[in-house]
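Quick one, tokens below:
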């Protein structure tokens, strides 16, 4: 039986990385094997592209195409094989992130994103997407306390406001796939909600 593909989305600092391993443990308690991965990255080539994307200045169109190049490698070599073997896959970001960051944040027209998405993914989509939602100012405070900013994290608050808005619009357009999680709550309350979501997944 094919495994389930669950993605975690949200602006930088919203809490995806904080909760992904806990989520994996919730799934393992159900008796399922879990692969935890991330984008950009997830493969040897993808991780090299990640280094470029997070640290090198580049044109927005170049950024978009490199994101989908990394995604293509990730999908073909890791995600689809794991799902076919019956594993669940938890992925920190997927194509919704491109619509939010490159579309909403950078202002790249949606038709370019649609072309690349269809080319790389055909009609493949996550079974469930968890959107960790947080005000950009609160996310900035969290990030600043945890690490030095990469090229994306160093963007102005207005950029993250556009990214957040793009995420919320996608969630509104696909309410059966998305679950919005208020990341402004305590870690304990967020985990209670995650447990309930996974119990019904």
């Amino acid at each position: 039986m094919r495994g389930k593909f669950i993605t975690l989305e949200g602006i930088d600092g919203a809490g995806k990385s904080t909760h992904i391993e806990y989520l994996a443990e919730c799934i393992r308690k159900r008796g399922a094997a879990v692969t935890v991965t991330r984008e950009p990255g997830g493969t040897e080539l993808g991780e090299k592209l990640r280094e470029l994307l997070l640290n090198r200045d580049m044109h927005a169109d170049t950024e978009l195409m490199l994101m989908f190049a990394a995604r293509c490698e990730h999908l073909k070599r890791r995600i689809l094989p794991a799902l076919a073997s019956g594993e669940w896959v938890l992925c920190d970001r997927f194509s919704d992130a491109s619509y939010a960051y490159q579309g909403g944040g950078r202002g790249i027209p949606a038709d370019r994103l649609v072309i690349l998405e269809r080319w790389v993914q055909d009609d493949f989509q996550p079974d469930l997407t968890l959107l960790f939602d947080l005000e950009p100012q609160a996310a900035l405070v969290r990030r600043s306390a945890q690490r030095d900013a990469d090229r994306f994290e160093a963007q102005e608050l207005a950029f993250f406001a556009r990214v957040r808005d793009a995420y919320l619009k996608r969630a509104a357009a696909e309410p059966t796939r998305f679950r919005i999680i208020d990341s402004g709550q305590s870690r304990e309350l967020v985990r209670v909600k995650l447990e309930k979501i996974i119990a019904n997944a």
